[in-house]
Design goal:
single chain; 289 residues; alpha/beta; TIM Barrel; eight-stranded parallel β-barrel; 12 strands; globular; disordered N terminus
Amino acid sequence: MKRCLFVLSALLSCTAPLCSVAQSVGTSPSFKGPVGLQLYSLRDQIKQQGATALDFAKAQGFVEVEIGLESHYGLTAEAMKAALDARGLKPIAAHASLDFILNQTDKAVAEAKRFGLQYVGVAWAPHKNPLDEQQVLKIAEGFNQAGKLLKAHGLQFFYHNHGFEFQPYKDGTLFDLLVQKTDPDLVKFEMDVLWVLHPGQDPVTLLKKYPNRWALMHLKDLRKGVKGDFSGGTSLDNDVALGSGQADYAAILKAAQEVGVKHFFIEDESPVVLQQIPNSLKFLSSVAF
């Protein structure tokens, strides 16, 4: 009886997200997630504090994480793997350079297998500004090749949009051309919401336009009043807590679930990331649609 009273007392004293059930962190009756954390969000903390910086991710209730494949912010791959394992953090996806995947495939695959990844992708396509048709065709060729190389080892390749791909092209954008010229089986996409909003695109429209291509999503919000462009860059201060910026997350998450996005990762690049992430999780837990 005393044990039951102790457990009840502990549950009543818990506050989200610290005491959220791991599988439900950042979710609501409407939004099912799963919600993980892109560890780039903690890059500065990891560089300064080492593995102990990951205690924050565990304390927030995260289980799934997205990592870098070539860099671990000052930690060795072995140290990062041990740190993640010790905290029950499970890597699902990783970002790498296209050159690394294409020209050091064996090493890229070995690192992916070390961490037990399902997805390996790139977040920046090498190009010269302004992006044009010929460059997109070359990028698409590289993506298809990377996808084929990774698929042979049971890994899914993906591309994370970064804003510059939405230059107008014919009756659409260069992003449309990129989607059309990549193999749907070999190349999936990770929508970064901020980098859809920044060049003036609508995330919901884009999700519904290509319902079978989106596998992953970066949950980020763009400060209200910011007018973007096709540069693929903006002040880190413009990355704000979810629900406080320009994104209509109720509509976005509803559409994302409908088209089958499988994993969602908060990525917060702001200087106040440790303050914003709890607020973002609180917002996500209240999203209704």
